[in-house]
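Re: beginner question about structure tokens

> Can someone show what the tokenized structure looks like for a real chain? I only ever see the sequence side.

Sure, here's an example I had lying around. Input first:
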Amino acid sequence: MNKLFICVAILAITSSALGAEKVIGDWEGLTNEGWEDHQAMANAGWTQDIYVDDPTLMPSVYQWGDAWASSGYTSLETSVTGWGWKMRRYINADFMTYSKLEFDIYATPQAGSSATWAQVQQIAFSGKTNGWWTAAGSEFDIGMGTAMHCVLDFSAYHTSTYFNAGDYMSVVFALNAGAPVNFYIDDVKLVTPDPATMAFLGLGGLALLRRKK
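And the corresponding structure tokens:
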């Protein structure tokens, strides 16, 4: 199947109209917005929902990022010291409406850390009636101190093998780093670009993430 994953360092300012869009993580209200900690739930035997702002996880594992955000004033910061499933969310939306998952990400070594690399190890999805699967190409390196805008095209999965009309979806991020790293994730959304946007992306258009002062 034809799958596309693009993750680019930020080079220029652009603007383009979008079609359908559903923001599923910007954290401007300083709430969990439905995002859970995958590993904590697994450790609890999947008997309860454990959200990223749970007192047992914040601020040791997660906190509201106040050093970097791609839009607004807040990102979700998470501490990573090795491979592991991290952020997870169930989304009540007709998955067939959307064709892309977009998000902004930034990684930096923790104080005193010797980290030189970090990566998104996997992005996995599930539909209402089907099991978990990992999106092809959803593993990529993140340069230390480099803001990146990432786009996962999942339109090839718009089949009954993966999703049915009206399905909700689940998405989970697996993050990895060679030494303690802080990841900042922001502006997570599902998107169906309009034709003008698709043409723009085809020409290699990039958007500027701004480092919050």
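Each token stands for a local structural state, so reading them left to right follows the chain. Helices lie at 38-43, 195-202.
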